[in-house]
Amino acid sequence: MIGNQRRICEKDTDIFTWRTNMFKIHLQCQRWKLRKLKMFYRIQNTGTRYFAERRTFPNLSHNFAETHGFLPFLQKIKLRKEEAKRSVLVQVQSSQSCNELNSYCNSFGTVKQMLHYSVGVEPMHFILVEFEEESHVDNLLSNSSYVDETLIVPTYSHFLWFKASNKKSPKLKQINATVLSAENGTRVLNNSEIKDSLSKCENVSEQMKMLHLLTKLNDLGSRLRYLTALQIENMVAGMFPHVQAYPFGSSVNGFGKMGCDLDLVLRLVDKKSSENNRLMFHCKASTGSERSTNQRHIEAFGDMIHLFLPGCAQVRRIIQARIPIIKYHQKLTDVECDLSLGNM
């Protein structure tokens, strides 16, 4: 009898201990949620939700952060867009073509830096060339040509390829050996390489930091995504000169990883009208609901991307989704894109 009572007391003690431990865990979870909630409101109240603190934009390169310091979200978008307008993407034979390409490009303007990467199993090599001024890019593009206008769609864009020189080509001015700012800049580390790097860390905290550094979207990855957005803007800029293609999501909020997709929202008018203006543009009236209009626009823009834009493949128009989008793969920048229309 005494033994049974002892076992019952021990059982009650175990239940009490278990409940106490569960209550402690519950309190810890509530405290953690409260800390997260306070952090969210602290970030939101700054007016710059994504970039409230310097540590919230790890997707920028050290040089970009050093040059510009802390930037509000829209200011950072503006600078990246200007950077894309000063850049061209050139397909080359290999990374060794950088010296000749640098000499050729410097004959049209001042090259600021060059970044190399490759795409595919049988790699296609590309060099992203950034100039000092946007006018230098205009000068370069005005001196670029097409292979045969009868065999291709003669699209004017920032995407080029470097033809081999011939005997009639003028001699280029020799400059010092070109130093690439990045070589194989978009290579994604495999699991074994990541594990090797993490095994050298002394504790879990260092491993977390190292994992973030090894997998985050780097400077070249960001540049290629803004160049992809610029291609969409240029596609419709003739009819919509104030068009803006805004990246959003992981590509710009600091949580992007190498190889992440690109979410774009296209705004056909990004300029506020003044009430003092008396001259107004004649425009085509929208017919039907906003959703049906968006669906027709998505179909039209999808056809333009499929038929006219170099490098764009696997174009799919998903018009029955809650927010109609265009999904496509930009092969030259190796970026998967989701394009939608509307306001941010």
UniProtKB/TrEMBL annotation:
Gene Ontology BP annotations: RNA 3'-end processing
Domain called Poly(A) RNA polymerase mitochondrial-like central palm: residue spans: 205-343
Stored InterPro entries: MTPAP-like_central (IPR054708), NT_sf (IPR043519)
Pfam families: MTPAP-like_central
Domain of life: Eukaryota
Any one GO molecular-function label of the UniProt entry: poly(A) RNA polymerase activity
Protein name: Poly(A) RNA polymerase mitochondrial-like central palm domain-containing protein
Protein species of origin: Callosobruchus maculatus (Southern cowpea weevil)
